[in-house]
Amino acid sequence: xxxxxxxxxxxxxxxxxxxxxxxxxxxxxxxxxxxxxxxxxxxxxxxxxxxxxxxxxxxxxxxxxxxxxxxxxxxxxxxxxxxxxxxxxxxxxxxxxxxxxxxxxxxxxxxxxxxxxxxxxxxxxxxxxxxxxxxxxxxxxxxxxxxxxxxxxxxxxxxxxxxxxxxxxxxxxxxxxxxxxxxxxxxxxxxxxxxxxxxxxxxxxxxxxxxxxxxxxxxxxxxxxxxxxxxxxxxxxxxxxxxxxxxxxxxxxxxxxxxxxxxxxxxxxxxxxxxxxxxxxxxxxxxxxxxxxxxxxxxxxxxxxxxxxxxxxxxxxxxxxxxxxxxxxxxxxxxxxxxxxxxxxxxxxxxxxxxxxxxxxxxxxxxxxxxxxxxxxxxxxxxxxxxxxxxxxxxxxxxxxxxxxxxxxxxxxxxxxxxxxxxxxxxxxxxxxxxxxxxxxxxxxxxxxxxxxxxxxxxxxxxxxxxxxxxxxxxxxxxxxxxxxxxxxxxxxxx
Length: 495
Prior knowledge:
Elements: H1 18-26, H2 32-50, E1 53-56, H3 58-73, E2 85-89, H4 116-123, E3 127-132, H5 166-173, E4 179-184, H6 190-196, E5 199-202, H7 226-230, E6 234-239, H8 244-252, E7 277-280, H9 294-309, E8 313-316, H10 325-337, H11 341-345, H12 353-361, H13 369-383, H14 393-406, E9 411-415, H15 427-430, H16 436-444, E10 448-457, E11 460-467, H17 473-487
Parallel strand pairs: 2-3, 2-4, 7-8, 7-9
Antiparallel strand pairs: 1-3, 4-6, 5-6, 5-10, 9-11, 10-11
Helix pairs in contact: 2-3, 5-6, 10-16
Pfam families: Amidase
Domain Amidase: 35-477
Organism: Pseudomonas putida
């Protein structure tokens, strides 16, 4: 597991997994100071091209690395990730650091405490070097906001980094850090992971606390519907190498006094046998979405052929209700939690839609276009009584029953994470239904994982999504490792 010290100055150093870097720190072949310095230099390079960093933590990271190195040299007990740099989403919150969530209304706010999941990584010895850029108030599948600006893909500058945790996905994909922490309420970990060709996990409901991120942030913790909304969200890891996933999940999972949705801890135990069943789901498109690209369709076929060659039973399955995935997600959030996007975008204050429209015409918008437009449509729907949403709830129930029946053990569902590779900037304005592939599993509470397929299409990474039954993360993580070995996983960007 150890690595020669000579690698500490090479461009390839942080391309290793977090697990391997931590092992190198423990056995003395790697220096936390060198790791952090290399991470900072790479962040600075990537920032000039992609604008992935919202808040640079470079000075405090250097100080933390010096402490970590002294602790190692003095024989102190070391955490599982001792001395390894990482990043996490700006909106999760690091105590006393900016916490704007990309909103002009919050541009002077700082975090009152560090998010629980992030603090657990820090307690395990990991060193935060940056807070990643995000979509404004985490309300859009593209990372853009009026405070920090837009983040672009490291593979093609004219393509989106995804959202809302897009900045951290870029930092991981570009080998600035080996892993990062984002949040996922409709695909906000898995969509950026797909856009940037890395692994992104949304854990099962009740496993990883959201505390620190809205709605369980400084303002939201006192709101009566905060727990109901948070039930459909989760913090989750982003990483380049599948071997990091079980370690990261074991660290960040577990009960938290502020997030009452969290019931379980996680101890990784590999499945006792090979995968028994793979359900292959390949719709041509979802409602309000774009058509699946040939590259994604081929990747799904390759997943099926891989498992067939290992004796796994492969069955094509396309439930009719999947076409309404976006509407089902929206219906559950509106009908069962009472969430209002205007409350989120306005940070508890009214959103002046006409004033924003005028400011946008003058080139000085108060909000990013996507989140603002979503808020306008949400408010309009409320005025009209949200017609048609109630009839989506039985579809959710039937789909959950069908999935849990099929994914009752050592089985997974394979389907797109996105219909194509990283889309052009602004794509979500035309095809909002594309998030249905990921958002559906937030309201179903099932674990879902984006898996990079070791190939590019028109210069951008190709990925698929795997879904397992409730609490079946070991099956997902084992499948991720199998596909990584078979197809190569992450591909470095061209700079």
